[in-house]
């Protein structure tokens, strides 16, 4: 491959990575009052967002007892329910959001960790890389 083409390809790749780093996530969490399950969902989601989306998300927590019209307009029939509005595609998650792997998959986020020897490891958490669709 000619040197100029390699440089252009690398530049395009770096620009795509930079664009992904700045992508904003718009999230809505529908809960039912101050129940234990609602509290766990809020706590689990905040931990997830701080670990995987730090500085790149907007979270709106909506109590369906106080705003039933919002739940109805989004067709939320079970709580807690998380709706990932952006980036597209829209995704819905039901439950206390304790299954991090399912949320990562639904957000299309792949976590890659480098071990102490510098090689990639599949276990645990580490830096985030987007999965190619």
TrEMBL record:
Residues 28-109 form the KaiB domain. Pfam families: KaiB. SUPFAM superfamilies: Thioredoxin-like. GO terms for biological process: rhythmic process. This is Circadian clock KaiB family protein. It comes from Candidatus Nitrobium versatile. The lineage of its organism: Bacteria, Pseudomonadati, Nitrospirota, Nitrospiria, Nitrospirales.
